[in-house]
Amino acid sequence: MTVSRRVLLAAPGALLLSAPTRADQQRLAAALLDFTGGQPMREGRVRLDVSPLVENGNAVPISVMVETPMTTADHVRRIGVFNERNPQPNVITAQFGPRSGRAFLATHIRLATSQALVAAAEMNDGSFWSQRVEVIVTLAACIEG
Fold this sequence. Notes:
The chain is of the alpha+beta class and 145 residues long. The chain is built from two helices and nine strands; from the N terminus they run ααβββββββββ. The chain has one domain: SoxY domain (Immunoglobulin-like, Sandwich), CATH 2.60.40.2470. It has helices at 5-17, 22-36; strands at 41-43, 46-49, 53-56, 60-66, 76-83, 90-95, 104-109, 115-123, 128-139. A hairpin with a 6-residue loop joins β5 (76-83) and β6 (90-95).
């Protein structure tokens, strides 16, 4: 990935100006709690691929993959992607089953500003796994005025 000089110079300022508020963090925590139904979530098994430095937040490519054989005995039921600072914390939720073949989700999302993204997966045994990634956005999108 090549990064322009403008993006590189803007990144430190974007970090300082975009520290999440307590309300942002609480909204993300509430969305994750709703997804898990109060069950504990562990780090691992989920891989959220997104560029750590995004020049334009209007169309950010992301993909989520979960380590599982996708058999009847061990498969993903749902994958959810959540964000910290967009107007809506739940970006997408996709349903899976053993006949899905593999637990993979790819899409483009909008990011209002620099923030954390969380990908979470519910397994058929009721366990929840996740990965959190911090993303710096230099040109914001979806800001309500």
